[in-house]
Amino acid sequence: MNDELKQIATKLAGTNILNDFVEYGGVAAAIETISGNIYTGISIDTACSMGFCAEHSAVAEMLKHHEFRVKAFVAVDTKGNAVPPCGRCRELISQLAKSNLEATVEVKNGVFKSLKDLLPFDWKEDLDRNW
C-alpha cells in the first residue's frame, strides 16, 4: 500500500467541535477498492456514544457507489498517525466480501497487515454461506 491513502485521510483528520455533545473528524479513513477508487470518511463522536467510526463512514460512501471489495484501507488520527481499526470496523469490512480478508491495513505507522491477520479466529470461516 502506498502513502496516497494515508495522505488523503490525513487531509480530512482534525477534531471539530460542533456543540457540547458532538465532535467530528478526530479520526479519518480512506478505503481503496479493487477497482482503484478511493472512498473517505470521518468519525463522529457524541456524548451518548451514538457516533460512528471513520471506517464506517468510508464504507457507506463506498456502498453508495455500489462497490464492496476492498484492496487497502487506513485510519489516521489528527496528527496523521495510522491507527488500527476497531473490532466493529474489522467485522463490517470482512462481512462485505470474503475477499476483503486479503485487504491490506496499516495498523501502525509503517506496519501493514492483512485484515485476515486481524481476525485470526473468524467466526464466518465455518459457515457454508456465499459471502
Structural features, described:
With 131 residues, this protein is an alpha+beta fold. The chain has one domain (4-119): 3-Layer(aba) Sandwich (Cytidine Deaminase, domain 2). Strands 1, 2, 3, 4, 5, 6 and 7 form a 7-stranded mixed β-sheet that branches. The model has no long low-confidence stretch (mean pLDDT 94). The protein starts with a helix and ends in a 13-residue tail after the last helix. The chain contains 4 helices and 7 strands, in the order H-E-E-E-H-E-E-H-E-E-H. Strand 2 (22-33) and strand 3 form a beta hairpin. The protein is globular.
Overall pLDDT:
94
CATH class designation: Alpha Beta
Q: CATH topology, what is it called? A: Cytidine Deaminase, domain 2
What is the straight-line distance between the termini? Answer: 25 Å
- Percent strand equals 25-35%
Q: Radius of gyration in whole Å, from Cα?
A: 14 Å
Return the domain count: 1
Shape: globular
Structural class estimated from helices and strands: alpha+beta
- Helix segment tally: 4
Which blocks of ≥5 consecutive residues have pLDDT under 50?
Answer: none
CATH architecture assignment: 3-Layer(aba) Sandwich
Instruction: Determine the CATH superfamily.
Output: Cytidine Deaminase, domain 2
Largest sheet: 7 strands, mixed
Helicity level, as a percent range?
A: 25-40%
Order of secondary-structure elements? HEEEHEEHEEH
Number of β-strand runs: 7
Key features?
single chain; 131 residues; alpha+beta; seven-stranded mixed sheet; 4 helices
